[in-house]
């Protein structure tokens, strides 16, 4: 009789093990990597950009990241929202929350672009300095920093906006305190130092929206060109396998970030699987059948 009781105890333990294993596998699946995503809010995030640290190319990760559904661009002068990325042309649009527009003008901070960054200003930008002192170095004839001709009409257009009262000027004020700024450094290492230039505010127009005479239709923001030569065959293979290109380690070496949480140096092909209900069911059936077979053998002995 004791031998039969022991057999039942052994059988019970053996039957409990596979059931526990199967339940654990279902409740605790292979962890999904939650740091890299292909969108941020409504903006598609593709290489060389990334949604966070370890995603995209390391040269871009220090400047662009996703924060609570908003894609942000950082420089030494502040954090700006990325409103659009055009991957076909290699450009992105950033907006400064303190930059003036036709509908709202206010005192602005400065703007700078790191010389070592993979970004440069595009030729579409028209930087306009507003509410400048008449003693500003901008108006020194020897410096020739303010554009003349057709672009000077931008000043008259902006000063016709009701928002100009936000910087202490009446609507349709004389454009003598406005400057369409032509910096000696047009691309890399751009710096717009408002205190040094003695101006209250600035804005940037990257498109007239088909209506140069109506500043309410102008598109305000800063258009940047990015270096798109970082894309490589190894990144292409990673994306083909369903992964996202990123980097890892102190040397910031390439990493393919897979959906199941694994990072590889090549692609996500053959890098495991995520548990599915069908697979769990098959494992459960096989293990349960094995347990019943063992029980029958013990009873038969």
- Describe the biggest sheet? 6 strands, antiparallel
The overall pLDDT, averaged over residues, is 80
Q: Note the gap between the termini.
A: 13 Å
* Share of helix, binned: 10-25%
Q: How many distinct beta strands? A: 17
Numbering strands along the chain, what is their spatial order in the largest sheet?
Answer: 3-4-5-6-14-8
- Shape, please? elongated
C-alpha Rg, in Å? 31 Å
Number of helices: 6
* Secondary-structure element order, N to C: HEEHEEEEEEEHEEHEEEHEEEH
Strand content: 15-25%
Q: Classify the secondary structure makeup into a structural class.
A: alpha+beta
Q: What secondary-structure arrangement, pairings included, does this model have?
A:
Layout: H1 2-27, E1 39-40, E2 43-44, H2 58-61, E3 64-67, E4 70-75, E5 78-86, E6 91-95, E7 111-112, E8 119-121, E9 126-132, H3 153-159, E10 179-180, E11 191-192, H4 194-197, E12 199-207, E13 219-220, E14 222-226, H5 233-240, E15 244-248, E16 253-257, E17 263-264, H6 277-300
Antiparallel strand pairs: 1-2, 3-4, 4-5, 5-6, 6-14, 7-11, 8-14, 9-10, 9-12, 12-13, 15-16, 16-17
